[in-house]
Amino acid sequence: MAAIRTQKEIRQRAPIWLGILLLTNLVIMAVDARDSVTRQRLLRVWVQALVSPAQSLSSGASGASTSFFREIVNFRQTAGENERLKEDLATAQLDLRKAQQANVENERLKGLLNLKEQTGYDQVAARVIARDSSIWFNTITINRGSSSGIALNMPVVTGGGIVGRVIALSPWTAQVMMVTDEKAAAGAIVGQLSGSGALGSVRGLGNSGLIEMRYVSGLQNVEVGNYILTTGQDGIYPPGLNVGEVVQVKPGTATQPHQILIKPGAKLDQLEEVAVLLYRPPQRAAPEQTLPNVDKTKK
Amino acid sequence: MPQLKIAAALAVAIILQLSLGGIWPPLSYIDFPLVVVVYIALQRHAWQALIVGTIAGLAIDAPSRGLIGAGGFSKTLTAYLIYIAATRVNLENPLLRIPVLAAAILIDSAIYFFWHRSLGYPPSMPFMQTISYRLIGTTIVGTFALYLLDSLFTERARQRRTFASRRKGARRGPSTLRRR
């Protein structure tokens, strides 16, 4: 029988299979790593589109299992009481919890609605369906994609403040890099946009959950508790959005900038609903053609 | 049929990996698909281990911000190295599986990290801290998971279950018959 292989044959062929599979993975990696003209990786779009139903399913399953375990805990708490009181109490607790959850959700959604009034930008509300599965990156996946009008680099916010920006898209999902990611950055200012000169840029610090603000002159007055707002100069976030609150300042000098740590205003570890601002930064003006260095022979 | 069982175990591991992090984020440090890959490699099923390694890695890469293929590469290579070790050294002892599992986590994480660094996608999480949490979480949970997989998959476990009921019957045998 040709189909039956001996252990020796299998052992001999294993390196060939290994080579083929490693090469396949390498090719996939190479394609994924390459930036195309549109700055969006086609492979990622397809894969995300394929994976999104499974992610939604697993998100649903995790929600169901969470509520299942919560029910068990409730049952244990009331086990010592008599049957009638136990039923009444369980029902009351369940109703109360539902009401509290509805209240919290209501507050969150109200915050998102207020955000539209405050910022004046159109927005798409989205639900967080997954966190980064590989644990190495600070990203989340939301259940809205290019079919809802979302584009790459659009800012993602909650009522509390900025969450991050869209870095990958499929028609039905989008991947969001959070502001706490080491690669995330934004132009920011301490205090009011017009009332302060403490300009700088904020950058994530990985898994510490904090953000660092850089390049703020040591001569500027910065205190713990000050609010940080976006300036809009980064071409991603619109001006005036809340970034967070200063929690630590290492004062600088005339030649050294302050070292500032910020706690994000958005509760990034408890995200459930977010809003994607359909914001497109204003186009920057072309370089002045009358400058002496510009080649004028083309005219 | 064993292929079906492997596919089912892998599917469960991937679902656990994708959903548990949502319930409690520290649970995402446990690499369930890697445990399945290590188990199959320890059974000396060469091509199954390699295929499962690739599928498990790609399934975890897909919804991640990391490079698609990096996890597939690291898990496939890890599967092969464990398979080679299992064909040369007897790793049937459950205690020996603990260091094997720990080594698999280290190899997998190191290769994954290496590719991201090399191709300009440095991970946001600190390497040592993440690898330590993965090592602790996956080794502890993985040791029990390997035992569970063992009792579900191996022929010896199946025989043990079958013969246990026969032995029970045999012990009851003559005296029960006489009473009838």
Which descriptors would you attach to this protein?
heterodimer; A: alpha+beta; 6-stranded antiparallel barrel; 3 helices; 12 strands; 33% helix; globular; B: 180 residues; Arp2/3 complex 21 kDa subunit ARPC3; 7 helices
Characterization of this structure:
The complex is a heterodimer of chains A (299) and B (180). In chain A, strands 1-2-5-4-3-12 form a 6-stranded antiparallel β-barrel. A 6-stranded antiparallel beta barrel of chain A has the order 6-7-8-11-10-9. Chain A is α+β, with helices and mostly antiparallel strands and 299 residues long. Chain A has helices at residues 7-33, 42-77, 83-119; strands at residues 123-131, 139-142, 155-157, 162-169, 174-178, 185-190, 199-204, 211-214, 227-230, 242-250, 259-264, 273-277. In chain A, strand 7 and strand 8 form a beta hairpin. Helices cover 33% and strands 23% of the residues of chain A. Chain A contains 3 helices and 12 strands; from the N terminus they run αααββββββββββββ. By secondary structure, chain B is an all-alpha fold. Chain B has a single domain (2-179), classed as Arp2/3 complex 21 kDa subunit ARPC3 (Orthogonal Bundle), CATH 1.10.1760. In chain B, helix 1 packs parallel to helix 3, helix 2 (32-42) packs antiparallel against helix 3 (46-61) and helix 3 packs antiparallel against helix 4.
